[in-house]
Write a structure and sequence with these properties.
Helix content: 25-40%
Radius of gyration: 18 Å
CATH topology of the largest domain: Spore Coat Polysaccharide Biosynthesis Protein SpsA, Chain A
Number of helices: 8
Low-confidence stretches: 276-282
CATH class of the largest domain: Alpha Beta
Distance between the termini: 36 Å
Order of helices and strands: EHEHEEEHEEHEEEEHHEEHHEE
Structural class: alpha/beta
Length: 285
């Protein structure tokens, strides 16, 4: 049997993390290991929930402080591999695990260890006062329409790398090492997922979707476009353009431009125009 580790990076969202841990424990087989990486969150370390901790990063050129999401995922993978993990499952802190998520990913990786697998994610409505009924998540199954959503038991190989997202994915230890992990030049929100999808293909691997590995994203407030991440998105979009020669997150960038928040320079890169719209990241419970 393969040793399976689930890796979750967290900054706040402690209630969401507790829900995720409950779903992982409730459905068999449970993962052999759950590596929680605390990003600038000492409480998770002090409570013994997180085994790995990374600090927020203050960018020298702007003084803006941001969370190192890419580096945190890589740190979690190193910890899992050091404890013998053969299958790495990355699950966003907001995601509850469907009952077949761990087994579905494990079986897909066993069949095709050269594929980096993703699973359908349903965005849940706000939780009732008593919280989500974790025993009835499957009744709310309604995967995000912007991503592939194969049926349970169905596998799709050769997926579009631009549709990769890190909310929920899995790969073999060898595949992870082949990719080299996430590019840690990305700091803060946006861009590193699309970059990783490109890295997978450049490494000679492929991307796939497995319908068995279903996850359920717990509700939290969002904005569209995510103006609170304006600095991160513009900075990371410029990095992506340097690395790959084209834009990532183009729809957001164009909406920022329409609102007068950002503009494209003559060389194709982007710049922030209205600094007063920036809002720092902040922890939520």
């Amino acid at each position: 049997m393969s040793r399976v580790a689930v890796i979750t990076v967290a900054h706040g969202r402690h209630t969401h993390l507790a829900g995720q841990r409950a779903t992982l424990a409730a459905c068999g087989p449970a993962p052999d290991d759950h590596v929680v990486v605390a990003m600038d969150d000492s409480e998770l370390v002090e409570r013994g929930v997180a085994r790995v901790s990374v600090d927020a990063v203050t960018l020298a050129d702007s003084g803006v402080t941001a969370l190192p999401l890419a580096a945190a995922r890589n740190a979690g993978a190193r910890e899992a591999l050091a404890h013998g993990a053969e299958v790495l499952v990355f699950l966003d802190v907001d995601c509850l695990a469907g009952c077949d998520l761990v087994s579905g990913y494990t079986e897909a990786v066993r069949m095709r260890p050269d594929v980096v697998w993703s699973g359908p994610v349903t965005y849940l409505p706000p939780a009732p006062v008593a919280g989500y009924d974790l025993d009835r998540l499957a009744e709310m199954d309604d995967p995000h329409p912007a991503r592939p959503a194969p049926a349970p038991g169905e596998l799709v190989v050769g997926a579009d790398p631009d549709l990769f997202w890190s909310l929920s994915f899995a790969c073999s230890a060898d595949a992870w090492r082949t990719t080299g992990g996430f590019c840690e030049d990305y700091v803060g929100y946006g861009g590193e997922d699309t970059d990783f999808g490109r890295l997978v293909e450049r490494s000679g691997l492929t991307l796939g979707w497995t319908g068995a590995a279903r996850a359920y994203h717990q509700w939290h407030p969002v904005s569209a476009p995510p103006v609170e991440h304006l600095d991160d998105i513009v900075r990371n979009a410029n990095l992506f353009r340097e690395r790959w020669g084209e834009d990532a997150m183009e729809a957001w960038l164009l909406e920022f431009a329409r609102r007068g928040l950002a503009a494209r320079r003559a060389d194709g890169s982007w710049q922030v125009l209205q600094s007063e719209t920036r809002r720092p990241w902040r922890r939520s419970a």
